[in-house]
Amino acid sequence: MSPQGSIVAIVTPMFPDESLDIDALHGLIDFHINEGTDGIVIVGTTGESPTVNYEEHCQLIETTVKYANKRIPVIAGTGANSTQEAIDLTKEAKRLGADACLLVTPYYNKPNQAGLLQHFTKIANEVAIDQILYNVPSRTGCDLQNDTVLKLSEIPNIVGVKDATGDMTRGIDLIKRLPSHFSILSGDDATALSFMLLGGKGVISVTANVAPKLMHEMYACAMSKQNEKAIEINQQLFSLHTNLFIESNPIPVKWALKIMGLIKEGIRLPLVELNQEHHKIIQTAMKEAHIQ
After folding, report:
1. How confident is the model at residue 4 (pLDDT cuts 50, 70, 90)?
2. Binding site listing
3. Which annotated residues bind pyruvate (predicted)?
């Protein structure tokens, strides 16, 4: 696939006892399809991938693929700080029918660029499924440099990169140097519009969880050079873009979805429910976006 558009980094609904709420996940998938979302990333950072176990990880991929039933592309988060674990998850995602995989840089063990090059090359060579690189150094402590992305783009089934650095200088450099068929996606909602107006092909978004229609419309306007309309939508959403990170993602966005009635109160330790002092801030951001 050529990933593009407003792709939601979907949350993993849970009950208050931290068990998975599959019925709520089905509801979210229908919600995104009805609202125009262009793709779903399941079990990414926003989907609490660090704390779901291997069996749950695979269950969430299988459930999403089966329930989506080709109505919307499904991208499975299969990254790990163990190369072999990432290969195993990616193989399983392919077997389960995912359209592509999103592979975060190995966290905590902090490989250098040579290690990253070998890590992603090995996964791509061992699993014949389209793969998207994911660079989010603020969370992983590991930064995939643009030169390394350029080398990896030569591998046929590495089809894109999610750049969540929020650094537009780096983003412009990626857009300038990478081949046109390679999908360069923003992973930072606050700078996503600028990224798209300068040549990026879309966004993997947290904001899209609560404002999917507006995020899709902003993308569509950016692609069709309706810049004023795209800027207007972005201004409407900007408080969400920033305040959905007032605490560690996905704490704020899961709280917002709960008050929208789309999921129940459930988040897995060590994450906990949104601090009460931040409730009003999120509610105000939602009102500015005409949500709730």
Report:
1. very high
2. 46, 204
3. 46, 204
Q: SS3 of 20, please?
A: strand
State yes or no: is 134 an active-site residue: yes
Which residues fall in the annotated binding site for pyruvate?
46, 204
- Summarize the confidence of residues 139-166 as an average pLDDT: 96
Between CA 77 and CA 173 the distance in angstroms is 26
Identify the active-site residue in 134, 201, 219, 254. Answer: 134
Q: Which residue has the tokens 């660079």?
A: 135
User: Residue 292 above 90 pLDDT?
Assistant: no
Tokens of 225: 């050079």
Q: What is the homologous superfamily of the domain 5-226+265-270 according to CATH?
A: Aldolase class I (3.20.20.70)
Q: Which of 94, 162, 201, 254 is catalytic?
A: 162
Alpha helices in the chain, H assignment, sequence order: 22-35, 54-68, 83-96, 113-126, 137-140, 146-152, 168-177, 189-197, 212-223, 227-243, 251-259, 279-288
Long-range CB contacts for residues 57-62, cutoff 8 Å, separation at least 24: 57/89, 58/89, 58/92, 58/96, 59/20, 60/12, 60/20, 60/25, 61/92, 61/93, 61/96, 61/98, 62/96
